[in-house]
Design a protein that fits this description.
Layout (H helix, E strand, L loop, with lengths): L7 H13 L2 H8 L3 H15 L4 E2 L7 E2 L1 H28 L5 E7 L4 H14 L4 E7 L3 H7 L5 E5 L9 E14 L20 E4 L18 E4 L2 H9 L5 E4 H10 L3 E2 L8 E9 L7 H14 L1
Parallel strand pairs: 3-4, 3-5, 7-8
Antiparallel strand pairs: 1-2, 5-11, 6-9, 6-10, 6-11
Length: 296
């Protein structure tokens, strides 16, 4: 048996009958005569070669087993077409099809999740490509074109080549696991230099040969913030961490904030960044304003 291809109109009639309970009610919902609804339903069943409703003495049609399967596919198809139409309409109004975003690992994850959730609600058809990077790898994404917008840290000589808008910085504090020698009171100046420091690094040439907040000549260079976090809690060494990431650990005693006389901590500057030869689209501009309003 050769199966025909139902029209979108026939699928819409099917879902309307299922949702409203009768051909007449479906006709009222769609603004059509009952006879037209019946004609479309007959056409659908003829195309598929099976009955999707049982229509006996009762006025309320009931879905057959096959009809329930067809209805599920019909809903998926109509949802896809609706999304397609919404996406095309958005593109015709100038919205970008995709937003590629590079974000520093220092940026608070809760704020990032809130921002992207709000973005999704406001631009439901927008595709997002997210890159979470360390240090100069954030800006490198802009320069190589794999990101169009970035939330990154300050980099002298690099950010000056980009359009930047300052956001609230992220506090960084030195921490270590309980029992580490640096957690003792009255740590003397220079003591941190005698202990292994865990240092965040990246593969970007923009930060090649540069150190940020490194005191100890003994260091492990780690390209992954989660690995650094886990090693700190395991007592492997001490290191600087963004407060939002370790707040729960500090409160629970899994990590201790160090009172180092030569390094009390600092604030990691954060800025919205994009290339001067790229004008952010409507979705990117909306996200920038959201971030500036809630973090600026």
């Amino acid at each position: 048996m050769q199966i025909g291809t139902p029209t979108l109109d026939q699928l819409a009639v099917l879902t309307a009958i299922a949702d409203h309970g009768s051909l007449a009610a479906a006709g009222r919902a769609l603004g059509r005569a009952t006879s037209v609804i019946a004609y479309q339903l007959d056409g659908l069943e003829a195309q598929l070669g099976l009955a999707v409703f049982t229509r006996g003495t009762t006025k309320r049609p009931r879905l057959t087993d096959a009809g329930r399967l067809v209805l599920a596919h019909a809903r998926d198809t109509l949802d896809t077409v609706s999304a397609l139409k919404a996406g095309v309409a958005a593109l015709s109004e100038g919205q970008e099809a995709e937003l590629s975003l590079a974000v520093s690992v220092m940026f608070p994850i809760d704020t990032l999740v809130a921002a992207l959730t709000a973005l999704q609600a406001h631009f439901p058809t927008l595709a997002v490509r997210l890159h979470v990077e360390a240090l100069g790898a954030v800006q490198a994404r802009l320069f190589d074109g794999s990101a169009t917008l970035a939330i990154g840290g300050a980099m002298d000589g690099v950010n000056e080549r980009l359009v930047q808008r300052a956001l609230a910085g992220v506090p960084l504090v030195p921490v270590a696991a309980p029992g580490h020698p640096l957690t003792q009171q009255d740590v003397p100046p220079g003591a941190a230099q005698r202990h292994l420091q865990l240092v965040l690094t990246d593969r970007s040439r923009l930060t090649e040969g540069k150190d940020f907040g490194v005191l100890s000549p003994r260091s492990w260079r780690l390209g992954d913030m989660s690995a650094k976090h886990a090693l700190l809690k395991a007592g492997a060494g001490w290191g600087n961490m963004p407060v939002p990431m370790v707040a729960d650990d500090l409160a629970a005693g899994r990590l201790v904030r160090l009172a180092l006389p030569d390094w009390p901590g600092t604030t990691y500057p954060i800025a919205l960044l994009h290339r001067p030869d790229h004008t952010p689209g409507p979705a990117a501009r909306w996200l920038m304003e959201w971030l500036a309003r809630f973090t600026g």
